[in-house]
Design a protein that fits this description.
By secondary structure, this protein is an alpha+beta fold. It is 52% helix and 13% strand. The strands form 3 sheets. Strands 1, 2, 3, 4, 5, 6 and 7 form a 7-stranded mixed sheet that branches. The chain has a 4-stranded antiparallel sheet with strand order 11-12-8-13. A two-stranded antiparallel ribbon has the order 9-10.
Length: 569
C-alpha cells in the first residue's frame, strides 16, 4: 500500500493574502505533494493549510512552508483570537494509509530537529511525537503563548525539545512551533428527526468520551456532585476519542449531534454511527443519516462498508467501489446532499488523472480495445501483458465462485469461509492487473535505453549498462506474474473442491487460465533473459520460473480432477 501522510499546519497569518499565498506556493513546490485546502480566518488571524503526499515529500513541504512563514511573519506584531506561539504555530503529521502513527511520530521529531538546526525555529514535540508525557497535550506546549517564550526558554523544565538555551532575535521574530503526530480527525454530524437542541445535546453527552457532569439522583437538573477535593465528578460517555455537542441547523431545519472523532482506531466511524443511533433510539429519536465535514481517508469508509456487509452476512470480496457504496447507503451519508467519494476521500483527491491514465493505460481499455491494441503493429502489449491478464482473469473467476458460494441458498453459515477466499482473490486480481501495464512499461524502458546517446566511450558504457539493467528488469516482471498466477491455483482448487458445485467449471477455467499465465510468463522470463550480455544474474530467475511451472501444472491437474468429478458424478 502506498504510504500517504496528511499535514495540517496552522500559520499565524489570516489577513494578508499575499503572505498566505507565498506560504502555500512554497509548499506546492515539492513534487508529489497536493494542497487540498487553504482556510484563512480573519478574526483568528490564522490560516489552516491541508496537504498530502508520501512521507518524505510531505516533510520537505512542511519544512519549506515553515521557512517561508518564518521569513514573512513577524510574531512581534501578531494579534488574533486564537492561541498561538509561533509563525508556524502547529504542524501535525497524520497517517492516512500505509503508515502508522508511530512512524509519523518519528518523522515529526526529525522534522522538528531539522527546523531548529537549519532555521533556528524552536520546536516543541506534542501528541504522539512528545518526548515528555505532559507534552502530549498541545495546551501544555503552548502555555503562555508567544509572550511567555523568554521565560520558558530560560527554564530548563519548560524549554523547547529543540531550541536555544537563551532567547534570541530569531525566536523573537518567528516564535516557537509545535510539531507533532496525531491520528486523523473525522468531523461528522448525525442528523436527527427532531428540532430539539436539548435532546441532541443529551445524546452528545451520552456518547462523547468526556460524558456529562454528575448530578444528584442522576437527573439533568439536580445539584452538581463533587469529589472530596471539591472537583466536579463526570460520568464518562461510551465512545473513546470522541468529542460531541448538540445543535440546531437552520439550513436543514433539524437538530444534529456534531462530533469530532479524534481517534479513528479506537472508535471507527461506523462504530460511532451505531452508538449514536442506539443512544438516540433510547431517547425516542432516530438518526436519519450522517454528514461528513471535510475529508476522510478511504479506509474509514472501507471499514464501514465491510462492517455492514458482515452484518448482512454478505461476502466482503467485492469491488472496492461497491464496498464504498454500501458504506454511503448504510450510514445515509447522502441524507442531506449528494455524497461522492471522489470528492470526499483523500486518496481519490490525490490522484493525478493523467498519471493514472498513463500507468493503467491497458487495463482501462475495453476488452475489444485491448485485443485490437494487442493486434496492432506495436510489439507491446505482447505475451507478457497477455499472460498477466490471463492470471488476472484466473483470480477473477476464483473470486466469482467464492462470492457465488457465499450467497448459495442453504450455505448461509459458511458465508465467512467464502468471503475470506473472495477477499484474497480480489487482492490477487489487482496485483495481476497492475502487472499487465508493468510488463509493457518494462519493454518501453528497454526501448528508451536504446535511444540513449552513444558517441563517446563513456556514453557507450552507460548505454550498455542501462540496457543490461532494463533487460534484467524485463525478465523479472514476468516472474512476478508467475508468482502471482501460481497463487490463483490453490484458490481455484479450494473452490473446485468446496465451492458451489454449479460453478465447478468456472473453477476449472480459472485453473487453465492460471497455468497458461504461468506458462506464457515463463517463456517471457527466458526470452528476456536471453538478451543479457551477462546471463549470470538471470539464472536464479530462470530456475525459479521452472519450479513455478512444475507446481502450476501439478495444481492444475488437481483442480481438473475435482471439476471432472463434479461434472461426471
Amino acid at each position: 500500500m502506498k504510504q500517504i501522510v496528511e499535514c495540517v499546519p496552522n500559520y499565524s497569518e489570516g489577513r494578508d493574502r499575499s503572505v498566505i499565498d507565498s506560504i502555500v506556493a512554497a509548499i506546492a513546490t515539492v513534487e508529489g505533494v497536493k494542497v487540498l485546502d487553504v482556510d484563512p480566518g480573519e478574526a483568528t488571524n490564522r490560516t489552516v493549510v491541508t496537504f498530502v503526499g508520501e512521507p518524505a515529500a510531505v516533510c520537505e513541504a512542511a519544512f519549506r512552508g515553515s521557512a517561508k512563514a518564518q521569513e514573512l511573519i513577524d510574531m512581534r506584531r501578531h494579534h488574533g483570537a486564537h492561541p498561538r506561539s509561533g509563525a508556524t504555530d502547529v504542524l501535525p503529521l497524520i497517517p492516512v494509509s500505509g503508515i502508522t502513527l508511530e512512524e509519523c511520530a518519528v518523522l515529526a521529531r526529525a522534522l522538528a530537529k531539522r527546523m531548529y538546526e537549519e532555521l533556528g525555529i524552536p520546536c516543541y514535540c506534542y501528541e504522539a511525537a512528545a518526548f515528555k508525557p505532559e507534552r502530549k497535550n498541545l495546551a501544555v506546549c503552548r502555555a503562555g503563548e508567544y509572550e511567555a517564550l523568554p521565560e520558558k526558554i530560560a527554564d530548563p523544565a519548560r524549554r523547547p525539545d529543540f531550541g536555544p538555551a537563551a532567547y534570541n532575535d530569531v525566536v523573537a521574530r518567528c516564535g516557537a512551533s509545535n510539531v507533532g503526530a496525531r491520528n486523523f480527525l473525522v468531523a461528522v454530524n448525525y442528523n436527527l428527526n427532531t428540532t430539539s437542541t436539548r435532546r441532541a445535546m443529551a445524546i452528545a453527552f451520552d456518547v462523547r468520551e468526556k460524558g456529562r457532569k454528575a448530578r444528584e439522583g442522576g437527573s439533568l437538573t439536580g445539584k452538581l456532585l463533587k469529589d472530596e477535593k471539591g472537583e466536579q465528578i463526570w460520568i464518562p460517555g461510551t465512545l473513546k476519542g470522541c468529542k460531541a455537542i448538540g445543535w440546531y441547523i437552520d439550513e436543514y431545519g433539524i437538530a444534529q449531534v456534531s462530533m469530532n472523532i479524534t481517534d479513528i482506531d479506537a472508535t471507527p466511524l461506523h462504530v460511532a454511527y451505531e452508538e449514536v443511533s442506539r443512544a438516540a433510539a433510547a431517547r425516542g429519536l432516530r438518526v436519519t443519516g450522517a454528514e461528513i465535514v471535510g475529508l476522510v481517508p478511504k479506509k474509514v469508509l472501507l471499514e464501514a462498508g465491510r462492517f455492514y456487509l458482515a452484518k448482512q452476512k454478505r461476502s466482503l470480496g467485492i469491488d472496492e467501489s461497491e464496498i464504498l457504496k454500501i458504506a454511503v447507503k448504510s450510514m445515509s451519508l447522502d441524507d442531506l446532499k449528494p455524497f461522492d467519494p471522489k470528492e470526499k476521500v483523500i486518496e481519490f483527491l490525490m490522484e493525478d488523472p493523467e498519471e493514472e491514465a498513463r500507468k493503467h493505460r491497458l487495463v482501462r481499455m475495453s476488452t475489444e480495445g485491448f485485443a485490437r491494441e494487442t493486434a496492432s503493429e506495436s510489439p507491446a502489449p505482447g505475451g507478457g501483458s497477455i499472460s498477466a491478464y490471463m492470471g488476472a482473469l484466473a483470480a477473477a473467476l476464483g473470486t466469482m465462485v467464492a462470492n457465488l458460494s457465499a450467497h448459495k441458498r442453504g450455505w448461509d453459515d459458511r458465508w465467512k469461509e467464502f468471503s475470506d477466499v473472495a477477499e484474497q482473490g480480489q487482492a490477487l486480481m489487482q496485483e495481476l492487473l497492475d502487472l499487465v501495464d508493468e510488463d509493457t512499461a518494462a519493454f518501453d524502458r528497454i526501448m528508451a535505453c536504446f535511444g540513449m546517446p552513444k558517441g563517446t566511450e563513456e556514453e557507450k558504457a552507460a548505454r550498455a549498462a542501462a540496457i543490461e539493467d532494463a533487460t534484467l528488469y524485463a525478465a523479472s516482471v514476468p516472474l512476478k506474474t508467475m508468482e502471482a498466477s501460481l497463487k490463483a491455483l490453490p484458490l481455484a482448487l479450494e473452490m473446485a473442491q468446496k465451492g458451489n458445485p454449479a460453478s465447478a467449471s468456472d473453477a476449472g477455467v480459472a485453473a487453465l487460465a492460471a497455468r497458461a499465465a504461468c506458462r506464457g510468463a515463463e517463456l517471457n522470463v527466458r526470452i528476456n533473459a536471453s538478451g543479457l550480455k551477462d546471463p549470470a544474474p538471470a539464472r536464479p530467475l530462470i530456475a525459479r520460473a521452472a519450479e513455478i511451472l512444475k507446481e502450476a501444472e501439478a495444481l492444475e491437474a488437481q483442480v481438473l480432477d475435482a471439476v471432472n468429478h463434479h461434472i461426471d458424478e
